[in-house]
Amino acid sequence: MTSVKPYDLEAALEQLGHHENIFGIRHHSPACARMVVEAAEELNPEAIAVELPADLHDCITWLAHDETTAPIAIAAAVTGDPHSGCLYPFADFSPELAIIRWAHKRNIPVHAIDLPVGAPKHPCVGEDEIEVQEHQERIAEVISQESWDTQVETAAVGQSWHNIQTAALAVGAATRFLQPPDYHTLRREKFMRQALRKLPGVTLVVVGSYHCLGLLDNSANDTTPDLETDWSLVTASVVPYSFAQLDSRSGYAAGIRDPWWQQAVMGKSRAEVVDVVRDVMVSVTRELRHQGHPAGTGETMEAVRVALDLASLRKLPSVGRREAIEAVTTVFAHGEILGRGRAVAQALQEVLVGDKRGSVAPAAPHPALVVEIKHQLASVKLPSEIKEPSKTLRVDPFSGHTALKRHVLFKQLEVLGIPYTTDKTEGTQRGLKAQGYTITCTWSPGAETATNLAAAHGVTVEQAVAHILLVTLNEPDVPLDTLLTTLGVAIGCGIDQVVNYVVQELTRNWLNSLSLHQAITVAETLSGVVSATDAGALLLADDTKNRCVSLADELAPIIISSVNGIAGSTDPHDARALGHLMSFGTEYAGLLKHTLYRLKTHGSTLMQGAAYALAPDDDTKALVGSWTDQASKPYLVGFLSALGPAWPDSYLLDEFIDNIETIADSAFINMLPSFRSTFDLTSAGEREAFLDRLYERIGHIDTTLDPQRAVEFATEDARARELLDALGLMDLSFDPATRWRLILGAQPDQLTGTAQKMATALDELYGFSPNGDASPGDGRITAGHKPGTISARVWKEDIESLFGHQGVQEIFGDALEAGRGDVAAALDPDSVTPSVDSLKTILNLKGALPEARLAKLRPIVARIVSELSKQLATTVRPALTQLTNVKTSTKKSPRLALAATIRANLTNVVEHDNRRTIVPVNPRFYQTQTKISPWHIIVVVDVSGSMEASTIYASMTAAILTQIRTLKVHFVTFDTQVIDLSDHVEDPLALLLEISVGGGTNIAKGLMYAETLIENPTRTAVILITDFEEYGSINRLVDTVRRLHDDGVKLLGCAALDDSGVATYDEAVARQVASAGMRVAQVTPLELARWVTEVLA
């Protein structure tokens, strides 16, 4: 649909040329801001018409006021409709503000002629607000900053207003032909035409250049309905604004890039613009030096020269914004995008955006948002004036309308950054967060100031909150975590607009690529609406709630199908996630029944424990009771994690409690560090709830034993005497209360003697939480010591004297994993048990320790890597024998080719003693080949934080593959960046010391780099080792896999590479890459070797 006949562009411009009283602009244009005033001086109009909603006319007086300082904005919303908000920012270089100020000084009337904010909405069939917004974004994209700068801004220096008016009209007309107006734009232009016809005399019309053709009288072709004059009432305020908000990259509405630059070049001559460029280069240099990067006078002068030369080469009358930016990136960043390039971009943005903030004339009415907030606070009997005293009250959001309104208002003020509440105290009930809380409310001078600052976001609380949240979502490449955080906040604040936006975004762009944890997080967030457990959800519209319920329903099958991806997990978070699923309702419990049954037999030990917790059978209580030895620790960790806050009351722990209280002292001492570390994973509040349960038992232990158990205990006691005697603990005897205090880290003041020493040694590591406890309890659980209270040497001696050598191994292992690098120096390399877990723990300390201390760890790492590599080579090498540079032949050699011999003699079978025997009449032998055609193996390894164990196995396996002459091996690692470590691939120790584990995941980038290494696709195999938790573009990843497969590359995606062959991975993404041609499997190093042999042999 278009408001003009399809003229060619030349005819349209000729038509506009006859209307010199129409000045097309861009809403923030230094050139137009100056030229429109020059045009007004020459045309001497009787009135001014600007593109501003007609019902905001009263705000013009305060825009033009002598005491008003830009940048400022008009915030408006339909009265009673918090979701109708809009924002109109102005700066000194805004042409509308420039002409309004000019007219105000000469008492020339200014008319707002755009469609009112309060006009009824009449969307065209099939068109909604999102489509209107997308149309406006397309227009903004066509009239890009760069094209406008080139055609209008840079060309304006030394030009007349006639030339700039023509250039601006040309850009607008061209854009209109490329992107015809939508229905909403046609309604606006019809209203503007009608408004202009009512104005007498000569009127200078200042509107966006896109609309100029639409203002010409062509009513015969107008298909839009007549506009009503019954507008809704609108609340509007002129509010302070800032350059930071005006910059378009901030996400705020109707902005422009680099406002400081726009202000600085406004009205400047060519020589003055050169001074501005020089100031920019000096400021960038200063900012880079402040960041610690080398930059000086030489770079500054060179950057100025480059900017001037670029303008000259492009035959521009002056240096423009584009030339200044290109000069900076060329000279200071050396063309780099990353590294130094990022620092330069940050410095450039800091300089060109600026920190200017506007102010409104003191006599102007108070911002509507301030009035609204105070009114809402007073309506629920809360302090709203500085003179009012603070008020402490109890809030239970579900107890009534007033309490609900208070609760949601607190949430909204928090989003607005208004410091109104303090001393919030929340309780817990059986480890679960209580719904009610106490809080203190104060309207302080700080709250008053913050409210005035927030006024630029809207005129109602809901509009302002929605605006702030949507700004966050308007940033490019918004990560899922931000979406979910924003969704939770929006639900808590009852903001329909934002909830609908995020739900739509999740449904359109994320639903089919969510990992299990991400899907669970989405479901948990939506459960506040679905189950009405979030008080803010009570304020949402029914349509919004229905959309949330629909999305939650779509998530259920995705989550259930992804559970298989965590079957091999050793992370307690995965067990907790499984427990969360069961808490979502009977629907999930029913769907998970078969999966849990399978986990009991095929999952990792931790996930088996979780499955038994969530789907117990008749034997589960006895099974849990047997988990009192070292090997059972993962089962118990999974069990407690899956039950979450419910574990303290679980009947399944009855026999476990009995056995803890009755096992021999020696067994208890051996297991105490393991028990303490296991229960330390639970919150203090949960352990205190468990203590309450134990209080009913302690002191009432059944001491009668059957004869058989008495004999077993006597035998165990005999063994215990030897250990206790060696440890100097012959006088030790632990009663049930002491045992549980040691295990739970509870009531240390009740412990004495050796028990107290044990508690002190354990408290050095366990119980301390630097980030606080989600359920802190009431103080009966010790918080432990701050790390480093005891020196590592003394601590080791204490542990060894109390728990023996095995205790040192376990506790120091946990200490290393917790980041206690000081304990590493106290370890003896020969005493460390070689394992992937210990190697992973020590390697994690690389970035946290100084080189002097790290050097002491190298012998330990070297020994572990050496031992593990020997063990792995023994397993893997036999499977790779077919890949050596040999062929089979009848020529004799010391090496018999058994498989080839059997195949060659299958016809030579005789029977002897009723058994068939192959007679090797034609034996085959291995012969060395002189010519080989090597296969190219590219191992691409994900080194994000979740892939530590697989990274270790990948390094050792790659080193083994390099020993085969027929293979050329590349070793590439990636997180969000790619590093080629092929030079170290033959030495697994050097390789592991070079790898830095941690960060995000961009699988597509890793594969795209591997693609550049390929010389002969049909003789190349790419082995991708990742958990498929892709943070980058899923589509780009799938396209890359499909392209490699189509080229003939052999592809294997290892969801795990460890000795278990059971993985934790994103099943949804794995399915997509599998459909594109990559074989995806969970493999051990041996199975990987067999695959390589199968594909390459």
UniProtKB/TrEMBL annotation:
Signal peptide: none annotated. Gene3D superfamilies: von Willebrand factor, type A domain. Residues 934-1093 form the VWFA domain. InterPro entries: DUF5682, LolB, Uncharacterised_CoxE, VWF_A, vWFA_dom_sf. It holds the Pfam family DUF5682. It comes from the Bacteria. This is VWA domain containing CoxE-like protein.
